[in-house]
Automatic annotation (TrEMBL), chain A:
It comes from the Eukaryota. Residues 644-669, 744-799 are annotated as: Disordered. Signal peptide: none annotated. This is Sodium/hydrogen exchanger. The chain crosses the membrane at residues 46-67, 79-96, 108-131, 143-165, 172-196, 216-240, 309-329, 335-359, 371-390, 402-425. InterPro entries: Cation/H_exchanger_CPA1, Cation/H_exchanger_TM, Na/H_exchanger_3/5, NaH_exchanger. NCBIfam families: b_cpa1. Keywords: Antiport, Cell membrane, Endosome, Ion transport, Membrane, Phosphoprotein, Signal, Sodium, Sodium transport, Transmembrane, Transmembrane helix, Transport. It is found in: Apical cell membrane; Early endosome membrane; Recycling endosome membrane. The lineage of its organism: Eukaryota, Metazoa, Chordata, Craniata, Vertebrata. The keyword Transport applies. It comes from Colobus angolensis palliatus (Peters' Angolan colobus). One of its GO terms (molecular function) is potassium:proton antiporter activity. Residues 747-778 have a biased composition (Polar residues). Plasma membrane Na(+)/H(+) antiporter. Exchanges intracellular H(+) ions for extracellular Na(+) in 1:1 stoichiometry, playing a key role in salt and fluid absorption and pH homeostasis. Major apical Na(+)/H(+) exchanger in kidney and intestine playing an important role in renal and intestine Na(+) absorption and blood pressure regulation.
Length: 799, 146
């Protein structure tokens, strides 16, 4: 037993006083991370990681306690609030799906503000009432103490919520509501906490009405002030990143430092620090991602995830460890039990009431199952714990009772509710649906109907079109981006040429890849089996089409090493066929949009399958449209005239369209993308004769839709115009100078570069596709100034 | 919000409402949406306007749905036509069959009419029948890249 005994003293001896704490806290963190490695996915899908970490912390704390009989390392509020919480909140803000967030902002605010106040008030008052009835025995508490306790136990915790919701796949609206609420309720919590704490300090009898009014005013000051601080620092950060072209190495540092500064500043000013750093992350995302280099963006992403994951691990472990501290344990059955009951019940009531109110004003209604998730998913976590430990033991006599109760509440919500929420949701969902496995027919048609429904939703604008959003993007384009975005980023954002640029590149690469691959054995088995199956299923209308899809599939499988296709090599052809058939039917049924979207994850950064799917569908749609367009229109004119028309339209569309944010794709691919409708500023369509309108409209819609999806899809798109199955006008296309840069080399955008297999040979082979140089067609020049995208090859990418 | 101005009278609002069963508020919103989609303020929607909606491009059935707005090969759809198609998607109202007036035409969102709409999406050549080829097409659309 010599080991654990004197562990601490040994540590102190060897490491010295100052380093003991960091060393000793590194061990739990290390343990926690190791645990994450070895834990099978099955376990984590049942038990949320946070629960496991807490248990692990408990075990550790137990060991140390048994060994040394002292309470070891506790989660001190300082460490928590200054070191552990900021990375998590920054991570949440930086990767926040902005559109979704602001689209549901009203709902979120209502739950965050009104909901939290309701929870705090009702819990505090009820506990007070029970106390008055004598059930709790003799305690030295007053009304204000109860209200104080209520305010700190009421807040839903962002750390805990996210940790649990990662496993429970809810629809994106619900997710953003819970997530947003947990972030924004900090302002309320801070205000209530501070207000009641100062009241308690004053003494219950000295509180006047004026103080209450001051409290209410302080809420507004704290929340709006915090937000303002965050926005200011976001502005600062974006501005700074605009000029960091020559200090690329430390670019990522700026992001973290300035964001942390926003946190500290608002903490200094007694404003809501969480709101500040959240909004700093939310507001700066777009500009920072546009301005910094690709490597810096990657660095920032991974570092942020690392810090946030690490902080979360440490927090939960310390929660467990801190719980093992018998000195503070005070048990009062009535108090603890009733607290648990009250917070659950009142949260449910609050959610139901607010949802009823909201549903009268919301387009997308919140159903009962959503409300269940909302109320059951209101987890308390480390924030409450830190706040309660922060209480002044002198003023609040029953601090130990509060601490113990808080610990129990946190453990209960995280462990019990975290464990049971997933089965609960599944049970509720299953209750409403069929119990038998749908037949293939039903599946196919069911999917078809889902697609139809989401299409109709898009047409009727249920999710899109918003006046405020349009106004904001207009304002942003005109003013903000000018100031905050690097000029090159602005230019590429403004030019649709960029889009076609990459489209061409992508196609070129796929040609190259196919050429390479035909000679090599590496992937030949899987694509050939795929191909075989394809041939069985669908007799092609034209042989050329087969090669195109073959190409596309090649491309796709090249980018993501499909382990399944590699494994196929080892099996017999027949098995492979069966597997692929099944695989095909199961997997290639395109998922409708509302299904599982991995919106935000603290632990994952991988792109989802949906990009592939959307890419494929988009290819097909564009090709079809272009075919119909060309056969109806181009076939009528002579080739030469058509060529002129082509040029005209391209110039027109260049002038007309604008990509508000061409850099969106460099952002976290995990983010769900909802295709936005951008306002196509159709200028001067009137001045062209009518018969051109249809044609120009044709190219424009192509351009705009391409642009829409391009700006949102991280993976880039194939150029439909350039696909080889356009048997007609092959020569036409070759003659026309497409949208390639007239520069010396083919310049890939940052977005395209992520997809290009980086090899000098690839670049070399691309140059033949650089067709004629800048068009000096007088026709073009007459149409107006062309924007050139000679985007200089970004410095850092000589790969 | 700009909706202040959208209180401009919708032509034939009453008859549309009767035919489709939309509430006045819904109708107003749809009108607003119609006007937003109608880029050149033509007063009708062409295929281009509907194809502008980015999300439809990544929907495997997007084009067919756009087609369904243009019955009989017309190139334009006006507001009543627009609303008529969307009316198919209202929730089904299950009333007692007794209270229904047998002489009135079925409401657009009846089960039968919904099925009819779905049938239309499958029936590409509009001959009133779904051939084996058409059925395969729909399935094929989702099985693989062409």
């Amino acid at each position: 037993m010599g080991g654990p005994q004197g562990l601490l003293s040994t540590l102190k001896l060897t490491c010295g006083e100052w380093t003991t704490a960091p060393v000793a806290s590194a061990f739990p963190a290390l343990l926690g991370s190791l645990k994450r490695f070895h834990l099978s996915h099955k376990v984590t899908s049942v038990v949320p990681e946070s629960a496991l970490l807490i248990v692990l912390g408990l075990v550790l704390g137990g060991i140390v306690w048994a060994a040394d009989h002292i309470a070891s390392f506790t989660l001190t509020p300082t460490v928590f609030f200054f070191y552990l919480l900021p990375p998590i909140v920054l991570d949440a803000g930086y990767f926040m799906p902005n559109r979704l967030f602001f689209g549901n902002l009203g709902t979120i605010l209502l739950y965050a503000v009104v909901g939290t106040v309701w929870n705090a008030a009702t819990t505090g008052l009820s506990l007070y009432g029970v106390f008055l009835s004598g059930l709790m025995g003799d305690l030295k508490i007053g009304l204000l103490d109860f209200l104080l306790f209520g305010s700190l136990i009421a807040a839903v915790d962002p750390v805990a919520v996210l940790a649990v919701f990662e496993e429970v796949h809810v629809n994106e609206v619900l997710f953003i509501i819970v997530f947003g609420e947990s972030l924004l309720n900090d302002a309320v919590t801070v205000v209530l906490y501070n207000v009641f704490e100062s009241f308690v300090a004053l003494g219950g009898d000295n509180v006047t009405g004026l103080d209450c009014v001051k409290g209410i005013v302080s809420f507004f000051v704290v929340s709006l002030g915090g937000t303002l601080v965050g926005v200011i620092f976001a502005f600062l950060l974006s501005l700074v990143t605009r000029f960091t072209k020559h200090v690329r190495i430390i670019e990522p540092g700026f992001v973290f430092i300035i964001s942390y500064l926003s946190y500290l500043t608002s903490e200094m000013l007694s404003l809501s620090a969480i709101l500040a750093i959240t909004f700093c992350g939310i507001c700066c995302q777009k500009y920072v991602k546009a301005n910094i280099s690709e490597q810096s963006a990657t660095t920032v992403r991974y570092t942020m995830k690392m810090l946030a994951s690490g902080a979360e691990t440490i927090i939960f472990m310390f929660l467990g460890i801190s719980a093992v501290n018998p000195f503070i344990w005070t048990w009062n059955t009535a108090f603890v039990l009733l607290t648990l009951v009250f917070i659950s019940v009142y949260r449910a009531i609050g959610v139901v009431l607010q949802t009823w109110l909201l549903n009268r004003y919301r387009m997308v209604q919140l159903e009962p199952i959503d409300q269940v998730v909302l109320s059951y998913g209101g987890l308390r976590g480390a924030v409450a714990f830190a706040l309660v430990v922060l209480l002044d033991g002198e003023k609040v006599k029953e601090k130990n009772l509060f601490v113990s109760t808080t610990i129990i509440v946190v453990f209960f919500t995280v462990i019990f509710q975290g464990l049971t929420i997933k089965p609960l949701v599944q049970w509720l969902k299953v209750k409403r649906s069929e119990h038998r496995e749908p037949r293939l027919n039903e599946k196919l048609h069911g999917r078809a109907f889902d697609h139809i429904l989401s299409a109709i939703e898009d047409i009727s604008g249920q999710i899109g079109h918003n006046y405020l959003r349009d106004k904001w993007s207009h304002f942003d384009r005109k003013f903000l981006s000018r100031v905050l975005m690097r000029r090159s980023a602005q230019k590429s954002r403004d030019q649709i040429l960029n889009v076609f640029h990459e489209l061409n590149l992508k196609d070129a690469i796929s040609y190259v890849a196919e050429g390479e691959r035909r000679g090599s054995l590496a992937f030949i088995r899987s694509p050939s089996t795929d191909n075989m199956v394809n041939v069985d299923f669908a007799p092609r209308s034209s042989a050329v089409e087969a090669s195109v899809s073959y190409l596309l599939r090649e491309n796709v499988s090249a980018v993501c090493l499909d382990m399944q296709s590699l494994e196929q090599r080892r099996r017999s052809i027949r098995d492979a066929e069966d597997m692929v058939t099944h695989h095909t039917l199961q997997q290639y049924l395109y998922k409708p949009r509302q299904e599982y979207k991995h919106l935000y994850s603290r632990h994952e950064l991988t792109p989802t399958e949906d990009e592939k799917q959307d890419r494929e569908i988009f290819h097909r749609t564009m090709r079809k449209r272009l075919e119909s367009f060309k056969t109806t229109k181009l076939g009528l004119n002579q080739n030469k005239k058509a060529a002129k028309m082509y040029k005209r339209e391209r110039a027109q569309k260049r002038r007309n369209s604008s990509i508000p944010n061409g850099k969106l794709p460099t952002e976290n691919p995990v983010q769900n993308f909802t295709i936005k409708e951008k306002d196509l500023e159709l200028s001067d369509t009137e001045e062209h004769p009518n018969y051109e309108e249809e044609m120009s409209g044709g190219i424009e819609f192509l351009a705009s839709v391409t642009k829409d999806t391009a700006s949102d899809s991280p993976a880039g798109i194939d150029n439909p115009v350039f696909s080889p199955d356009e048997a007609l006008d092959r020569g036409l296309l070759a003659r026309l100078p497409p949208w390639l840069s007239p520069g010396e080399t083919v310049v890939p955008s940052q977005r395209a570069r992520t997809q290009i297999p980086h090899s000098p040979s690839t670049f070399r082979r691309l140059t033949p596709f650089r067709l004629s140089s800048k068009s000096v067609d007088s026709f073009l020049q007459a149409d107006g100034p062309e924007e050139r995208p000679p985007a200089a090859l970004p410095e850092s990418t000589h790969m | 919000m700009g909706s202040r101005s959208s209180h401009a009278a919708i032509p034939d609002a009453d008859s549309i409402r009767r035919e489709t069963g939309f509430s006045q508020a819904s109708l107003l919103r749809l009108h607003h949406r119609f006007r937003a989609l109608d880029r050149n303020k033509k007063g009708y929607l062409s295929r281009m306007d509907l194809q502008q909606i980015g999300a439809l491009a990544v929907n495997p059935l997007g084009d067919r749905i756009i087609e369904s707005f243009f019955p009989d090969g017309s190139q334009q759809v006006d507001f009543p036509g627009f609303v008529r198609v969307l009316a198919h998607f209202r929730p089904v109202e299950d009333e007692d069959t007794e209270t229904q007036d047998p002489k009135k035409p079925e409401p657009l969102n009846s089960r039968r009419n919904k099925l009819h709409y779905a049938f239309q999406l499958y029936d590409l050549d509009r001959d009133g029948k779904i051939s084996r080829h058409e059925m395969l097409q729909v399935s094929r659309k989702r099985e693989q890249e062409m």
